[in-house]
Amino acid sequence: xxxxxxxxPEALTDAFSMAAERTLARQVDKAPVPHHVAIIMxxxxxxAKAEGLDPTQGHEFGRDTLENVVDWCxxxxxxxxxxxxxxxxxxxxxxxxxxxxxxxxxxxxYEMAEDERVHEHKIRVRAxxxxxxxxxxxxxxxxxxxAKTEGYDAYHxxxxxxxxxREEIVTAIREISQxxxxxxxxxxxxxxxxxxxxLYTHPLPDPDLxxxxxxxxxxxxxxxxxLAYSELYFSDVNWPDLRKIDFLRAIRDYQERQxxxxx
Length: 263
Hints:
This protein has a domain at about 35-165 and about 205-255: 3-Layer(aba) Sandwich (Undecaprenyl pyrophosphate synthetase), CATH 3.40.1180. Helices cover about 45% and strands about 15% of the residues. Strands 3-4-2-1-5-6 form a 6-stranded parallel sheet, sandwiched between helices. The protein has helices at about 10-30, 45-50, 55-75, 95-115, 115-120, 135-150, 165-180, 190-195, 245-255; strands spanning about 35-40, 80-85, 125-130, 155-165, 210, 230-235. It is α/β, with parallel strands linked by helices.
């Protein structure tokens, strides 16, 4: 059915979309979901530009999308979610945009600490990255959220902020070098596990699936060690435009792959 303009009515389009989402959800329910999903939330500024908004408003819309994704992960039973919120390189953006992002981080960490979902589902909240580079007010908000959830282990929610994958590995190397220098570790005993336990994500398992939005197809210095055998999925939609059906498509695509781990 089309209207006089030759277009399908919006209500009918929405009905088709909802039906497709329900069908896809049933398919996803029939197979194991990834244990750990990592997301590169890209496209906030592009979304804002397309909508004629200030870039900071794009980040606010992106925050709303992240709230939805947390709910979707809980619905599907995805136990670990790690999101790339702010890289060390992002500090080079305009002071106005960086300050607005810091305001969002401060607000969001305090809100997570009091979120009923967090306490109902026993979600442990952690920030990973060089938090010492963040404003003191953001550090305090992070410490508050982590303290309020440190006893939980049913679900894990990691926010990568002031994060860089290469820097994370360098930090691990420094710590290992110091142990060798002090005689606490023999170089011959250094293994992959030696490095892994010094990474920000320890002791959580590596991501099974990495989702990146906005059509870019690169990992942008995110979890470089941990992504060695992760499945990658790239979506063309900007982060604020991500719908549940888009998220389900990523999960379904993961379920249809055969993971080989280099074999």
